[in-house]
Structure formats: structure tokens, C-alpha cells
Amino acid sequence: MATSDVDFGNTPVSTVELAELIPNLATQGELNEWEQENILEARNWALSERETKLRDPVTEAYVRELHRRMFDQTWKWAGTYRRSEKNIGVLVHEIRDRLGALLGNVKYWIENKTFSPDEIAMRFHHELTVIHAFPNGNGRHARLIADVLVVKLGQTPFSWGGKDILAAGSPRTNYLEALRSADNGEVKPLMIFSRS
User: Fold this and answer.
1) Residue 58 and residue 89: Cα distance in Å, rounded?
2) Could you tell me how far CA 12 lies from the centroid of its own chain?
3) Segments in 21-133 forming alpha helices (H)
4) Phi and psi of 21, rounded to 5°?
5) For the packed helices 28-46 and 138-152, what is the interaxial angle rounded to 10 degrees?
6) Is the dihedral of CA 172, 132, 11, 137 positive or negative?
7) Helices 170-183 and 117-131 meet at what angle, rounded to 10?
8) Residue 187 covered by a domain
9) Would 71 be classed as within a structural domain?
10) Main-chain dihedrals φ then ψ at residue 77, nearest 5 degrees
11) Beta bridge partners of 21
12) Do 109 and 115 meet the contact criterion of CB atoms below 8 Å apart?
């Protein structure tokens, strides 16, 4: 599959990253289906009662493990931090420090009940998308880990607009607008969208 055949949305995949595609796929549609199957397996694992009880999603090891499980049948770089700059996200050399600070903040918010479980999960989600730690799949990863965290905190997983927010259209537009509001310090629209 040529780089020009791939539409990864807001995060371009470099030629080097594309070379680490595991399956032999010819089209973007095939890639989307393949990734979705991989993600569904990871979701079932992550949201299983056993895993939500045993694991702490607010650790660097879990952040990487979840991404690895989401994309390990698709990309050789699954679960490893990006090594190239993107059109979104912090600089590569800032990823580890920013993620460490975020994980510390989330633990503090949980321990001190600084925010509601939904707000903690949405703030976690938003900051993960800002950091953009992986070559691709950051939004899907941030949504799933927010689901895992909110379940761990005793709530139900989010509905995320109830539709496919990867496809162009109103749900995706609403999601991106909610993220932009969170960029400006207003997390409420993201909280509303996540439960719509």
C-alpha cells in the first residue's frame, strides 16, 4: 500500500512507519477493517471484569500495553512511542515527561476526588490526544483507555456520540469541536459528547 493510498485522518504516517504494516493489505478500507478487528479484541480484553479489577490504567506500562494490544496484529510499532514529529502532539523528546506528569495528575485527581469520574476520564482522554504519544491510533487509544478508567471508577463506558466518529460527518465534527474546546480549557463539551 503506497503512502498516497492511505488516509489516516489528522495524523500522517511516515514512509518508515508505513513499512512496518504487518498484514499485506491493498486498500484503506482493508486496513480499517483489519485495525477494527484488532481493536475489538483489545477492547474485550481491557473491559473484561478480570482486567478492570487487576490492572491500573493510570500507569505508563498500561498505556503502552493497551496500545500494543489494539494494534499488535497491524503495526510492528504498536505500543512504542513515536520517533517522528507529527502535525499534532508534543515534540518527540517531551512525550515521556508529559505522559508521566499526566499520569501523576490523574492519580491525584482520583485519590482526592478532584473531579467526577467522567471528568477525570475526559481530562485524561484529552491530554492523551494532546501528547499524541504513538505514531497512529492515538484518538482510538485515548477513547478506549478513558472507557477503561471510567469503568475502573465505577461508571459505564462512554457512548462517544453513539456513531462511528472516524468517518467524516457530524459525529466526528462534534468530537473534534469538543476536543478544541478542551484545548481552550473547557472540558464540558467533551463530557457531554462522550455520553451522547
Assistant:
1) 20
2) 16
3) 28-46, 49-54, 60-71, 95-112, 117-131
4) -70, 125
5) 20
6) negative
7) 90
8) no
9) yes
10) -90, 10
11) 75
12) yes
Residues 6+ apart with CB under 8 A from 188: 181
Looking at this protein, which amino acid is placed at residue 152?
K
Range of the domain at 109: 3-158
C-alpha cell at 172: 466526528
In a domain, 89, yes or no: yes
Give the CATH number, domain containing residue 18.
Answer: 1.10.3290.10
Cα–Cα separations (whole angstroms), residue 140 to 39, 86, 88, 111, 165: 9, 17, 15, 26, 10
Distance CA 60, CA 63 (A): 5
What residues have CB less than 8 Å from 17, skipping those under 6 apart? 75, 77, 84, 135, 136
pLDDT band at 28 (very low <50, low <70, confident <90, very high): confident
> Is 9 among the domain residues?
yes
Q: How many domains does the chain have?
A: 1
Cell of 6: 492511505
User: Is the model more confident about 87 or about 162?
Assistant: 87
Question: How far, in Å, are 72, 144, 182 from residue 106 at the CA level?
Answer: 26, 16, 16
Cα dihedral across residues 141, 144, 149, 152: positive or negative: negative
CA distances in angstroms from 184 to 12, 141, 165, listed in the order given: 24, 22, 21
The per-residue pLDDT for range 123-155, each reduced to its tens digit, is: 999 999 999 999 999 999 999 999 999 999 999
DSSP code at position 133: -
